[in-house]
Write a structure and sequence with these properties.
The structure is a homodimer.
Chain A (H helix, E strand, L loop, with lengths): L2 H16 L6 H8 L3 H7 L3 H20 L9 H16 L8 H7 L4 H24 L7 H25 L4 H16 L7 H12 L17
Helix pairs in contact in A: 1-2, 2-3, 4-5, 4-7, 5-8, 5-9, 7-8, 8-9
């Protein structure tokens, strides 16, 4: 991995764990065991790090949110897709922690973040609409609009809330978010009891290991 | 209203609107048109303001969360109670914005905030359990535990999320939070279609004006 990539990855990890505001460029250099001068050679300050991370985040979200054929997915594939959405936001979760404060400090992230959120909402709306057309989801148009807001709230804020409440590790947080989604979606799904149980079992067993063919959102390849 | 109360109310309003970290003691004094010296006479810095506000918040939450007889409430009364919970957290919402950052800055608020959240969760758990015993709510014990987490997430974080997404006024934010709760709870309620419609109509018409007998959470009487 090249130095610039290592720097970005380390910055991202530290920002996610401690919040962007408590991490300095020097902290990042120390963590990487490089000189602040070397870091500065690659990125001229936190501003340029934050912007480079937003660019990565945008590109990866675009891949996930441009996925088509959502309207032929099976319920368990949909649950997996929801998990991917949680995962891909979670990897860049510091952008959604103290959202207003971050926007004030880095005005340049406001527009791409807004764009990501509105694409996320559109994709969720499309997913629910197609499920509803296929008579799998029982929800009026107004209900579906609220469900989109709720999913989006869970995806972007539940990890922050988990930090407030308890100390879950990062994987547990993602499954917790997915469980919160499913507890509100499941009663609206017109599935057999057997199918619902199957989904619940998948959820309980945390049965969503990335298979080798799915690239990690942090793949720099 | 006494000066100390005016100061608290103004600090609360500014903290809620702009976040605690961007508001200084001098801002509060200017807003009130008093001298910083006068403010200092009443509160020795932001630390003491934040602690006094937390004391108010605790007392008011205790009143609402110690309410008994939840197990005889009608569905519309339950919805109203959920609204009261949203409202009472919303009045002190800056405590739940950037929760980790605030905790680092004011370690003394961690314990009372934790206590409020665990009381809130207990009360919600009790509410759902009693509804389930009365066969009004269809939810397993595991489902109910997730529903408690979800309600708590909505109550504490949805206003923050709304700020990220759009510019709703404060009343709209509260009804939006209640709508998010109801969209996940309603499909689990064993009510007639007529009863469900009635709840939805109440929700749509924002029909929860405080009646004169309910004291405002900001009542200093």
């Amino acid at each position: 991995m090249k130095t610039a990539q290592k720097i970005l990855l380390t910055a991202l990890t530290l920002f996610n764990e401690h919040g962007e505001n408590t991490v300095t460029s020097v902290d990042i250099a120390i963590e990487l065991d490089i000189s602040p001068g070397n870091l500065y050679y690659h990125f001229k300050g936190k501003d340029s790090l934050v912007n480079a991370l937003m660019k990565m985040h945008e590109q990866q979200m675009q891949k996930i949110l441009s996925r088509e054929k959502l309207d032929t997915l099976h319920p368990e594939e949909i649950m997996y897709y929801l998990y991917l959405l949680i995962d891909s936001i979670h990897v860049f979760r510091f952008f959604y922690r103290s959202p207003a404060d971050l926007a004030e400090k880095y005005p340049s992230i406001v527009r791409p973040r807004q764009h990501i959120l509105s694409s996320l909402n559109k994709q969720l709306a499309y997913l629910f609409e197609s499920l509803s057309k296929r008579d799998i989801l029982i929800a009026s148009k107004a209900d579906r609009a609220l469900m989109v807001d709720l999913m989006s709230l869970i995806i972007t804020q539940s990890c922050q809330f988990d930090e407030l409440n308890s100390h879950m590790d990062s994987t547990t947080q993602r499954y917790h978010a997915l469980s919160l989604m499913m507890v509100s979606v499941l009663p609206r799904l017109a599935l057999s009891d057997e199918q619902k149980q199957q989904l619940e079992q998948m959820l309980d067993s945390h049965d969503f290991m990335r298979d080798a063919s799915t690239p990690s959102p942090l793949d720099f390849a």
